[in-house]
Structure formats: C-alpha cells, structure tokens
Design brief:
Layout: H1 12-20, H2 28-43, E1 51-57, E2 64-70, E3 72-74, E4 77-81, H3 89-96, E5 100-105, E6 107-115, H4 122-131, H5 147-153, E7 159-164
Antiparallel strand pairs: 1-2, 1-5, 3-4, 4-7, 5-6, 6-7
Helix pairs in contact: 4-5
Length: about 170
Amino acid sequence: MTAPVQATGGSPFRRFSRWMYREGRPNALARVLNRIGALHFGSGVLAPSRWATLEVRGRRTGRTISFPVVIADYDGEYYLVSMLGDDTNWVRNVRAADGRAVLLRRRRRAVRLVEVSPGLRAPILRRYLELAPGARPHIPVDRHAPLASFEQVAARYPVFRITLDRPGA
C-alpha cells in the first residue's frame, strides 16, 4: 500500500483531520464520528443537500457498511470522490460489488457507481473540494489551484459517477 500524499503544516483543523486518517485509514475517533455522520447525513435533517450516507456491501463479510459522503455536482451529473485515495475499503467494496450501492438521504436509492477515468477527474475533484471542507487536508491541491494542478493528482483519487441502478437495464 502506498501512503497517501498529504500536505504538511496548516491549521490545527487540517492537522487534526490528517491525524484522524493517518496512513489512509480512520482511527477510532474517526470511526465513531463517521458512524454519527452517517446517521445524520442519511436522515437529511439539518444537513446540507449534498450530504448523504453511502451503504455498500463489504467484500469479505457481506455486511452492509455505511458512512457519510459528500456528493459533488459537475456538468449536470453527480459524483462521489475518495478523499483518501485509491487504497480505501469503500472503494474496494464498491469495485467488488460492481458499483452497486445505496445512497441514503431521507430515503434509500439503489445506485450504480461508475468509475470515472483519471483523465476526466480534475474538474470534478476541484468541485468536490469546493463542497467538502473536510476533504481539503487529504488532497494536496488548493481548491483554488488551476485545473492543471488537479490533473497531476487525479489518478490517485477515485471518482465515481452516480447513476440509478436499474436491474436488467
């Protein structure tokens, strides 16, 4: 596993956020906060419209795993981004499930997550950083940087386009 690239220094919030996800994995505190966030995001109560809960089947256990996500909109489509990079469990689980998952925000929606090729990720990553302040410490590009800066790191951060899952279609 390659360690995620992280900016050094920064505000206490940035340092704290990076500490919670050292080596690309959530520590115990981050796991508790993610569980609380998943309940809050999924309820839709007092939560921005871009917050939701993603549920995906675990590739080893088969159990449903839930966690909070920020949905980025770009060019009329909706996307999920892995702020910790390619080597995360949710990305592996989504790939193992052939992209099938459930998005929860007031109601459950079966979705298919379609991975976006690295060459098309840069503008989506920039939009994601505009919407997800908690992700900014983990992606080593300033949200105001030119698109070329995002292109340099795009291959390391999976992006999935959200489509409705229509079995048999």
